[in-house]
Write a structure and sequence with these properties.
The protein is 66% helix and 4% strand. It is mainly alpha-helical and 516 residues long. A hairpin with a 2-residue loop joins strand 3 and strand 4.
Length: 516
């Protein structure tokens, strides 16, 4: 009897535990998941070369440098502005701050996925889709502060504002006001990264299509379309206008538009391999998204909402293909609508709930985490960067990182000798003729100013051979001495010092020699 009583007590407690779990707010579940999967990248200053450069550019801006003039890149100004608050705290604490900002952005985006899913009648799969988004980011180098981690939040909010509802249908003023606000957000997202262009174009066309469906005349729709385009262009035009006002309008225009069009393509085999990798990452999401199309609607009002989401997904895939640079992080904007569209099948179909959901979450969690760990092994960690920085030293002489990590400028505090700080701009074949300066001539000007320390990574795929040969020749002519060869991830970076320099700390096991 006592045994049966104990069983009865345990049985009575089980529903209470289930209720307790159900009572955990969604934001807490998503926050816990985001911290758990992103923690492996916390505090690592070499998660990705792009983020290193964004942070360093923001640091230079705080010192008075002007992007596109004093430090060159083709990313829009909004991306560097995002990094400004973190850059104010220096390279160590600032890293943690921008990673915390990115974490908050991911969780908020996941919450918006849940909200958006509910409007399509996919509420049962909303939490799963939000978790899937968090887990998938690791596949696309989104484990830290990549640009889409931030602008996906803006895009998701724009889509939420654009959603059709009864109140909007009944009130032209409310509907058009929300549409204008949505396109204004798209304009802000464009100033974080221009790859959101096609998603914004689709949203604008969808908003005009909705006006037509509501029976408004063509001339009224054309005028409204002009307003939407103008609103979306305001942030970009403001940026251009600000540069023009201080006499650098041409520099802004070339960096933000001309250089994008002038950039060369990678070799066909390199592009194919990169495209197949991105396709493999996105393939499962796109397949499950397609299955969501067959989930019945609960109400006719869900049809246009689902049409918006699937159109958004198609537009993001189209943008990925058209931009033609298939680095992993170019998959991040597609992951947002893809995970959202997965919500239908994962939450409403029996096979989706019982079989596909656990398999997809498990594969995304393990695969994404393995990808992040593998990237860390390949790219290095904070301890290795610190050793390398000690070798470079913090002296008054300037540093030239021909190939390697731009975070070395941040951590060493050494000055630069050229606006073209991002190493690939002067060393990669694809950038030849697309950075507003002759690569070889700029390398020559850098060495004419006698950098105190020069850093070179091993040869890499896509490197311009003439650039490397010129650097080696200048090192030899200038009698630079190899002070050491330092590991950063799987690479060994050579640190050369000018004759008579006391910069940094030499590695005892390597004999100093001239470059050859």
């Amino acid at each position: 009897m006592a045994g049966n009583g104990a069983v009865a007590v345990r049985a009575a407690r089980l529903p209470s535990l289930a209720v307790l779990l159900d009572a955990v707010p969604a934001w807490a579940v998503l926050l816990f998941a985001a911290i758990a999967v992103r923690a492996v990248a916390f505090g690592n200053p070499v998660v990705h070369v792009d983020e290193e450069f964004y942070f360093y550019t923001a640091q230079r801006m705080l010192d008075g440098a002007l992007p596109y003039v004093d430090i060159w890149d083709r990313k829009p100004i909004g991306l560097f502005l995002i990094y400004l608050p973190a850059a104010a705290f220096g390279p160590v604490l600032g890293l943690w701050i921008y990673q915390a900002m990115a974490l908050a952005s991911v969780v908020l985006t996941a919450l918006l996925i849940m909200r958006l899913a509910g409007h399509a009648g996919w509420g049962k799969g909303g939490l799963v889709a939000a978790l899937l988004y968090i887990l998938m980011l690791g596949f696309g180098d989104g484990q830290s502060g990549q640009a889409p981690v931030f602008y996906n939040l803006i895009t998701a909010f724009a889509m939420l504002l654009a959603l059709p509802c009864t109140a909007s249908a009944d009130s032209e003023r409310l509907r058009k006001g929300k549409a204008i606000a949505a396109m204004a957000l798209i304009g802000v997202a464009l100033q974080v990264k221009y790859s959101v262009l096609f998603e914004g174009m689709f949203l604008g066309l969808w908003l005009l299509w909705r006006e037509r469906r509501l029976g408004y005349p063509l001339d009224s729709i054309v005028r409204f379309g002009a307003v939407l385009v103008a609103v979306a262009m305001v942030p970009t035009l403001l940026a251009w206008g600000a540069y023009a006002a201080i006499g650098h309008g041409n520099a802004w225009f070339y960096a933000n538009l001309g250089s994008i069009l002038a950039r060369n393509s990678d070799p066909a085999l390199v592009l194919l391999a990169a495209f197949l990798k991105v396709a493999l990452i996105l393939g499962p999401l796109l397949i499950v998204s397609g299955l969501s199309r067959h989930v019945p609607v609960n109400d006719e009002s869900e049809h246009p909402v689902r049409a918006l989401y699937f159109g958004w997904l198609i537009a993001s895939v189209f943008g990925l293909i058209v931009f033609g640079t298939y680095f992993n992080h170019y998959a991040l904007p597609v992951m947002l609508p893809a995970c959202l569209c997965c919500a239908g099948f994962l939450g409403s179909h029996p096979t989706g709930r019982r079989i596909v959901t656990p398999l997809l979450l498990l594969a995304a969690g393990l695969g994404g985490e393995y990808t992040v760990l593998s990237a860390g092994w390949h790219r290095g960690n904070a301890a290795q960067l610190e050793t390398l920085t000690e070798a470079i030293g913090h002296g008054p002489g300037c540093l030239y990182v021909y190939s390697g990590n731009s975070s070395l400028y941040s951590h060493s505090g050494r000055c630069t000798l050229s606006p073209w700080v991002y190493p690939s701009h002067l060393s990669r074949e694809r950038e030849n003729g697309a950075v507003g300066v002759d690569q070889l001539a700029e390398i020559g000007r850098i060495f004419a100013k006698r950098p105190e320390v020069v850093v070179m990574a091993p040869t890499f795929s896509g490197e311009r051979a003439e650039s490397r040969h010129l650097v080696i020749d200048r090192l030899r002519e200038g009698n630079y001495v190899l002070r050491g060869r330092y590991p950063l991830g799987k690479s060994l970076l050579d640190v050369y010092a000018a004759p008579g320099s006391t910069a940094g700390v030499a590695v005892p096991r390597l004999a100093a020699r001239s470059p050859s």
